[in-house]
Specification:
The complex is a heterodimer of chains A (445) and B (267). Chain A is α+β, with helices and mostly antiparallel strands. Chain A has 11 helices and 9 strands. In chain A, strand 7 and strand 8 form a beta hairpin. Classes of the chains: A alpha+beta (445), B alpha/beta (267). Chains A and B meet through helix 8 and helix 9 of A and strand 6, helix 3 and helix 5 of B.
Chain lengths: 445, 267
C-alpha cells in the first residue's frame, strides 16, 4: 500500500513537471504551424509541381502521398540550433534573436533607513553586476549626507549577494536602525521583494538586504553552453585530448569494441541460428536459452561481466558479444525458416545436393534477414558500449561524457552526446547502404 | 523408353486431432514417354499430393512410382518441377536461374552458357538474360521457370498450376508456349490445374480426380492439345467437342463440390 502511495506521489510530481512544459510545447507546435503557413505561401510563387502526386485530390489519409518534406526537415534542424543559440546568447546569432539575457553592468537602488527616534534618511546603493570569474573594480561613491550613507557592492550574474547597507551608516542595526523601504516601496522580511529594475531586492529575517540581479531567459553556460562553446571544445579536445587520450582514441576505442563484439556475436550467432533453423534438435536445445536471454537487456549484464571479467577490454567485448549474439542467432533462424519451400523443392528437383541447397538457396535467402538483424545488433551494441563505458572505462565516448559531467563540463557532455548520435546514425546509414548493395533482392521474393 | 508408372498409390496420414486423412486411394497411371497429362479436380482431391509424390517430396503409404523401371524414392533431376510462382531464386539473374541445374551438375561453363542462351531464346527472353528475376512480370517469371526446368533436360516435367497466378491474356499466351515446348522437346508432362479449359487444351490425356478419398474419377483422351500445336488456341476452343467436353467435366466437378458441401452440412 505504501508503495502505491509513493508511486502516486511520484506520478503527481511527474505530471506537475509535464504540465509546466505544456506552454512551451504549445508554443513549439505553433511555430511548426507558422512555418507551414509561411512555406505554403512561399510555394505559390515557386514553379508548380506537375508530377503524379500533385494531381491527387485525396492526400489526407493516403499513406503514399505523405513523404518527408525536405524543407520541413531543414527548418526543423535550423530551428533547433537557433533556439539553442537564442537561449545561450550565441555570438553566431544576430543579437535581436537572443532571448533577454542576465543583467550585466551597473544599477542602483535607494533604501530608506529609520532611526530609533523615528527619523528617516535615504541612501543609494550602487550595484555592479559582473560575469562570474571577471575582476571588478568598484567605483568610488560619495557617502552623501544624512545618517544613512551611500554604498557600493558587486554581485556576479546568476548569483545573489547580501549587503549590510547600514554597516557604514551613522546609526547602524546595532543602534536600533532598520531598513523600511527600497526605492520607496516598504520592505520587510515577511513581504515580497522589491523589483528595482535590474533585479530583485529582498530582506532576510535579520534585516539584511539581499540583491539578486535579473537572470533573464538565457541559460548559464554551466547548464547549457552556447553552440560555439561546444564547437570550440570539440576542436580543443580533438587537438589536445581529454584525460590523456585524444578524441579519436576515445571514439576509436568505443568503435573498436562495438565492431569486435558484433563480429564475434555474428560469427557465433549466425551458425547457431542456422543450426536452429535446420535441425529440430538444435531448435529445441537452444530455444529456451535464446528466448530467455533475448529479453535480458545487455545493460543488466554489466555488473556480472565486471565481476567476472573486470573493466578491461575483455569484459566489454564479452558484453557486446552477448548483446549481438542473440539478435544475430534469431535473425539467422528466421532467415532460414523463412525460405519458401517451393524454392528448396525446385533446387532439389534441379539436382542440387544438401550442401548445394545450403550454399545456393538457404544462405542467400537468409541474407536479408541477417542484414536486418545486423542493423539492429549494431545499434544495440553502440548503445550498450556507451552505457558500459559510463559505468567503468579508461577510454571511450561514454567515459568521456561521464567524467566531464562530474566536473560540470557541460560543453564536453553535449559534444559527446552529439558525437555519439552522429556515429550511431552513421553506422545505421552504412548498414543500410551495405544492405542495398549486397542484398538488392530484399523483400522481392 | 522411360515410362512413368504410378501403381496403386495410396496416401494416408494422421491429423493432430486424431483423425486420419485418406489423401489418395489406389491411384494408378501409366504414362508413356512424351505424353501430356493434365490433372483436374476440386480442391482437396489430392492432385498436388500426387504431384509431390511423383516429384519425390512425399513418400506414399502404399503403392509405388517408377520412372523407366527405377523406383522413385526422393527428388531427382530427371523429374523437373515448375511451381505456381515464387520458386525462382531472386538472388540470381535470369541467366543464373536458368543455368542452376547444369551448374549443380558441374557442367563446363561454355556448354552451360550455350544451353541457357538457347532456352532463353526459345521462351522469348533473349533480351532479359542479365535482369534480376524480380524485375520481370509474372508471365516472364514463369517463362524463366520453364526454361530453368528444361535446362536440366529432365525426362518428366511436373507442373503444379504453373499458370494459376497469371492474368487471362498472359495465361493464354503461356498455354501456347507450353504446347510448343511439349511438341518440340518431346518431354513427358504432368500438369495440375484447376481450370477446366486449361486441362482440355493442355492434355492429351485428362484425369478428373474426385475427393475423399482422392481417386481417379474419369479419364479422357483428347485431341485438342494436338490441334493446338498447329493453330490458334482460340480456334481450338470453338471446336464443338471442346464445349461439350468442358460442360461435361464442369458438371462432374459441380456435382462433387455439391456432395462435399452437403456432407459438411450434414456433419
Amino acid at each position: 500500500m505504501e508503495l502505491i502511495r509513493d508511486l502516486a506521489g511520484e506520478l503527481a510530481a511527474v505530471l506537475g513537471t509535464v504540465a509546466s512544459a505544456i506552454p512551451f510545447i504549445l508554443g513549439y507546435i505553433l511555430l511548426i504551424l507558422l512555418t507551414l503557413a509561411i512555406w505554403k505561401a512561399i510555394r505559390k510563387f515557386l514553379r508548380p509541381r506537375h508530377d503524379y502526386g500533385s494531381l491527387k485530390t485525396v492526400t489526407f489519409g493516403d499513406e503514399s502521398a505523405v513523404t518527408s518534406n525536405f524543407a520541413a526537415s531543414v527548418i526543423s534542424i535550423v530551428l533547433i540550433f537557433v533556439l539553442w543559440g537564442a537561449f545561450t546568447g550565441s555570438r553566431l546569432l544576430p543579437g535581436f534573436l537572443h532571448v533577454p539575457g542576465a543583467f550585466l553592468g551597473e544599477g542602483s537602488f535607494t533604501y530608506t533607513a529609520q532611526a530609533p527616534d523615528g527619523s528617516t534618511d535615504d541612501a543609494t546603493v550602487d550595484v555592479v553586476v559582473f560575469t562570474f570569474g571577471d575582476v571588478v573594480e568598484l567605483p568610488e561613491v560619495e557617502p552623501g549626507d544624512g545618517f544613512a550613507k551611500n554604498d557600493v557592492m558587486e554581485v556576479a550574474s546568476y548569483r545573489s549577494e547580501l549587503v549590510r547597507v547600514d554597516s557604514n551608516d551613522e546609526i547602524t542595526r546595532e543602534d536600533g536602525a532598520t531598513v523600511i523601504a527600497v526605492n520607496g516601496t516598504p520592505v520587510s522580511a515577511e513581504g515580497e521583494g522589491v523589483d528595482v529594475g535590474f533585479g530583485i531586492v529582498t530582506m532576510t529575517p535579520r534585516g539584511t538586504l539581499n540583491v539578486t540581479p535579473a537572470k533573464g531567459w538565457q541559460m548559464e553556460p554551466i547548464w547549457l553552453p552556447s553552440p560555439e562553446a561546444v564547437l570550440a571544445r570539440l576542436s580543443e579536445i580533438s587537438q589536445v585530448g581529454f584525460r590523456n587520450s585524444t578524441l579519436a582514441e576515445h571514439l576509436g576505442y568505443s568503435l573498436f569494441r562495438v565492431i569486435v563484439g558484433f563480429l564475434l556475436g555474428a560469427i557465433v550467432g549466425i551458425p547457431l541460428g542456422y543450426a536452429m533453423g535446420l535441425s529440430d534438435w538444435f531448435r529445441g536445445w537452444f530455444d529456451p536459452i535464446v528466448e530467455f536471454m533475448r529479453p535480458v537487456p545487455p545493460l543488466a549484464l554489466i555488473p556480472l561481466v565486471i565481476i567476472w571479467a573486470g573493466i578491461g577490454e575483455v569484459g566489454k567485448i564479452i558484453l557486446l558479444f552477448l548483446a549481438a549474439l542473440w539478435i544475430m542467432a534469431i535473425a539467422a533462424r528466421s532467415g532460414v525458416s523463412g525460405v519458401r519451400i517451393s524454392k528448396v523443392h525446385a533446387a532439389y528437383s534441379l539436382g542440387a545436393s544438401k550442401w548445394q541447397i545450403m550454399r545456393y538457396v538457404i544462405i542467400p535467402n537468409s541474407l536479408p534477414d541477417i542484414f536486418t538483424g545486423a542493423r539492429v545488433a549494431m545499434g544495440v551494441c553502440w548503445g550498450t558500449v556507451v552505457a558500459a563505458e559510463l559505468v567503468a572505462a579508461e577510454k571511450g565516448a561514454g567515459m568521456m561524457i561521464m567524467v566531464a559531467s562530474k566536473f560540470q563540463s557541460t560543453d564536453i557532455v553535449i559534444m559527446g552526446i552529439i558525437l555519439i548520435g552522429v556515429i550511431g546514425f552513421g553506422i545505421d546509414m552504412l548498414m543500410r547502404w551495405a544492405e542495398r548493395i549486397l542484398v538488392p533482392w530484399k523483400g522481392k521474393g | 523408353m522411360s515410362n512413368l508408372v504410378i501403381d496403386r498409390l495410396s496416401m494416408r496420414f494422421d491429423l493432430p486431432n486424431g483423425t486420419a486423412v485418406q489423401a489418395l486411394k489406389d491411384v494408378s497411371i501409366d504414362l508413356k514417354q512424351g505424353e501430356l497429362l493434365s490433372v483436374l479436380g476440386p480442391s482437396g482431391c489430392g492432385k498436388t499430393t500426387l504431384l509431390n509424390i511423383a516429384a519425390g517430396f512425399l513418400a506414399p503409404t502404399d503403392g509405388t512410382i517408377s520412372l523407366g523401371g527405377k523406383r522413385v524414392t526422393g527428388p531427382g533431376a530427371e523429374r523437373g518441377m515448375v511451381f505456381q510462382q515464387g520458386a525462382l531464386f531472386e538472388w540470381m539473374s535470369v541467366r543464373e536461374n536458368v543455368g542452376f541445374g547444369p551448374r549443380m551438375k558441374g557442367m563446363p561453363k561454355a556448354e552451360k552458357a550455350g544451353i541457357v542462351d538457347h532456352l532463353l531464346d526459345v521462351v522469348g527472353l533473349g533480351d532479359f538474360k542479365e535482369k534480376a528475376v524480380y524485375e520481370l512480370s509474372g508471365g516472364m517469371q514463369q517463362r524463366v521457370a520453364l526454361a530453368r526446368c528444361l535446362a536440366n533436360d529432365p525426362e518428366v516435367i511436373l507442373m503444379d498450376e504453373p499458370l494459376g497466378a497469371l492474368d487471362a491474356l498472359t495465361r493464354e499466351k503461356m498455354q501456347g508456349l507450353v504446347l510448343k515446348l511439349w511438341k518440340e522437346t518431346g518431354k513427358t508432362i504432368i500438369l495440375i490445374t484447376h481450370s477446366v479449359e486449361e486441362a482440355l487444351l493442355l492434355g492429351e490425356r485428362l484425369l478428373v480426380m474426385a475427393p475423399r478419398p482422392g481417386r481417379i474419377h474419369k479419364e479422357y483422351r483428347l485431341p485438342f492439345a494436338e490441334m493446338g500445336v498447329g493453330q490458334d488456341l482460340r480456334e481450338v476452343k470453338k471446336h464443338p467437342d471442346f464445349a461439350k467436353t468442358r460442360e461435361e467435366i464442369l458438371g462432374m466437378i459441380w456435382d462433387m463440390e455439391e456432395e462435399i458441401m452437403g456432407r459438411q452440412e450434414g456433419a
